[in-house]
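Entry for the shared binder. Reason: the reviewer on the internal report wants the predicted structure included alongside the sequence.
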Amino acid sequence: MPEEVEELTAPFWMTTFSDMTTLLLTFFVMIVSMSEVEVKKFKEALSYFQGRTGVLTHDAITPRPQRPTIEESAEKAEAMEDKYEAIMVYLQKKDLTSKVQVNLREEGVHVLISDSVMFKSGDAVLLEPSKDLLRMIAGVIDGRVSSVVVEGHTDNRPIRTGTYPSNWELSAARAASVVRFMLEQPGALIPAHYSAVGYGEFQPIASNSSSSGRAKNRRVEILFSWESWQTKQLNTPPKPAKALLK
């Protein structure tokens, strides 16, 4: 009889090893399926890879914005308080507190000026008395101010003149007039740090159904910001000065 050829089989230890590997895999699958993913930590982990062009690229990582330290925040708050007080004293002296509002925000000093203080109706040429006001307000600029944002606003009454076909053009021209004047003042920032924006009647702060409401909507807003103007908006709720100093 021909000899039976014994079939080759894996070593006996391989069977035990395979069983153990399968059990471990099953165990870890059960752990993962029963656990909850912490979304916040997961997003933080993903943020490390944002901005990379490759797995081993180190210089393409988008740096995280640096938060100001407690000392820097306190220093800025103190500087803002000084600027705020100086402007308020001037406004009280000139009896302009009903026409000009000054607010302190985390990003800087925000000034709201009624259009009647600065322009004739339907015009964008600065009145002479308003230039003294703007010179004083421009004194806010120091080494801490990084940008100046000027916004022009109107009420909803239509305007149609040869110079300003709509409220868009009028509000933008008024903002540009303010920026141009401030650029001429001593200590002005470089032009690239200024912006002039016209919103027309589309960002009211009061109802246009009354004359008093329309008067509030016709305004110029100026933000002296500690940060780049691209990252900030004027239309966030102002914060009281005392809250910033706490």
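Summary line for the report: The domain at 70-244 is CATH 3.30.1330.60 (60s Ribosomal Protein L30; Chain: A;).
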